[in-house]
Amino acid sequence: MYNKRVLITRIFPDIGAESLKAAGFSVTVWNNDRPMTQEELIEKSKHHDALFCTLTDKIDKKFLGECSHLDVISQFAVGYDNIDIPEASRLGIPVGFTPNAMNDATADVAFGLMIATSRKMFYLHKKIIDGGWGYFRPNANLGIELKNKTLGIYGLGRIGTEMAKRCKGAYNMKILYHNRKPNEKAEKELNARYVDFNTLLNQSDVISVHCSLNENTKGVFNKEAFSRMKPTSIFINTSRGGVHNERDLSEALNAGLIWGAGLDVTNPEPMQPDNPLLQMENVSVLPHIGSGTIEARNEMARLAAENIIEFYKNKHIPHIVNPDTLKNK
């Protein structure tokens, strides 16, 4: 129908490629069980009109300079910090993404990490494997309870709101949050209170990070920030590893500046198996699986394909990062 060629950079759920094929596109899927190198990605993209990519694909100035012919890029993710958006915009390349698809899946992981960390579940599971389940010791391996505690959300958007709902519903937690701007809907529905960053650090028993990674948030949870948190507090990050300084986090845990941490994202990724955080009893780490449900991944693939289909069909992208690029299409 469109005589357009789409490059899909991973083996994504079938619904994405099948939707594109059904709409008449010629689809090429990278079927290897490894990411393309940037050189491979550039070379293949040169022979396609649209790109269906994901977070680990490096869409930087170099890539965009050599593939400036692309009509559209659609990202299989809610984040897009792997893409040089200003450069794509300068070249007139619209960039789509897949918001909302993973709200529940990621909030579930944040909620699970909070519970697992508060009861040292990962550490105690490893003790059983290592033969360390011995006799009953009343004062050993004690966790902390979450009921009626204060949750601080850094980035109260769609996923942060779902995390807040879970914490309020399950544990009657008080909700504080820090955003670029107030979230009036969440304030009404959850009785959430907007506070400055310092108050969030000082008053929260659990801080859960749900912001995007940008120049303002990069490394914001550093030694200074951890030193302002309660020594009984838990730090949860399911957004991007670059939001926290991992060395500072490790030092804060060792020094007792905070009580525990639950991470679905690390800096760098993947985390090395000898990272000291993996051996701490009050730390829970997952390999960036926030969107890892059948439902979420299928919806992400569907939305990423829909962005491309709608662009060629109606010069419209339902979920777009840089809408100004569509003005002259």
What does this entry look like structurally?
There is one protein chain. The chain has 329 residues and is α/β, with parallel strands linked by helices. The protein folds into 2 domains: 5-99 and 293-326, 3-Layer(aba) Sandwich (Rossmann fold), CATH 3.40.50.720; 103-285, 3-Layer(aba) Sandwich (Rossmann fold), CATH 3.40.50. It has helices at residues 14-22, 38-45, 61-66, 85-90, 103-118, 121-129, 158-171, 184-190, 197-203, 223-228, 246-255, 294-314; strands at 5-8, 26-29, 50-53, 72-75, 95-96, 150-154, 174-178, 193-194, 206-209, 234-237, 260-263, 283-285. Strand 1 (5-8), helix 1 (14-22) and strand 2 form a beta-alpha-beta unit. Helix 1 (14-22) runs parallel beside helix 12 (294-314). The longest helix is centred in the C-terminal third of the chain and has 21 residues, at 294-314. The chain is globular, with a radius of gyration of 22 Å. The mean pLDDT is 97.
Write the layout of secondary structure elements.
Layout: E1 5-8, H1 14-22, E2 26-29, H2 38-45, E3 50-53, H3 61-66, E4 72-75, H4 85-90, E5 95-96, H5 103-118, H6 121-129, E6 150-154, H7 158-171, E7 174-178, H8 184-190, E8 193-194, H9 197-203, E9 206-209, H10 223-228, E10 234-237, H11 246-255, E11 260-263, E12 283-285, H12 294-314
Parallel strand pairs: 1-2, 1-3, 3-4, 4-5, 6-7, 6-9, 7-8, 9-10, 10-11, 11-12
Helix pairs in contact: 1-12, 5-7
